[in-house]
Amino acid sequence: MDKNLSDRIRDAREKIKEADAILIGAGAGLSSAAGIDYSGPEFRKEFADYIQKYGFSDLYTSGFYDFPTEEERWTRWARHIRFTLLSREDMPLYKELLRLVEGKDFFVITTNVDEQFRKAGFPSDHLFEVQGDYGKMQCSVACHNRTYDNTDIVNAINAHAHDMTVDSKYIPVCPVCGGTMDVNLRINEYFVEDDNWHESAERYEQFVRRHINSRLVLLELGVGMNTPSIIRYPFERITFTDKHATLIRLNSGWPHGAGEISGRTIAFTEDMSQIISLLR
Asked: With contact defined as beta carbons under 8 Å apart, do 254 and 247 qualify?
């Protein structure tokens, strides 16, 4: 990042204005910047009892804890889903992002599972949620290729939970095999990719194919290194392949990328909300 902030903002604005299309790639850093507190004061207040009993340090790693019963496991997930999804209206940063790309041909691929793109008004046919959705559940061993809305079950568990557990009558069971259910997240080999997932994946691939060799802006927002093969590395590869493309990367921890595309990468480590506002 040899240029100062004002020069980088100017260059990024020009590329967005001239773009034939914009491909947004979003990771957890976007939702964190928007206001979802994964490990700070809000998390510590909401999960104080879990922190005291289990030593949880953040929202993400607590999702992998091996609880001894389904009642305890689903009670934690119900609170997790309420915290990240059900208790939150659309977040201003996401709406600001939508205003930034309105009027352009755009598509979103995201590893986020908190539904904030849809809440902000992004059309579902312009959105690929690769890693799942907090609002859905599936058979834990993927005995069939379907997902289900979990809102009523999550609300019921939260309403009747006590001492970090709940009566077994509130726990969902698979309607096909009668086994346990999981939140529809890519946490193991049983992640269900239902018809909607595959249709979204195909729309994403079509968008990329349609705009190769055009003035494509790849707007990468808060994508870390947990799963770089989903967004970060493909965005660098697309930028390398398409000599007219520009990668705009907002990332406080890993702003730099492949040296081969450094001349067509505009990187920002500054506050994401500020940068998106300035780009408009």
From this structure: no
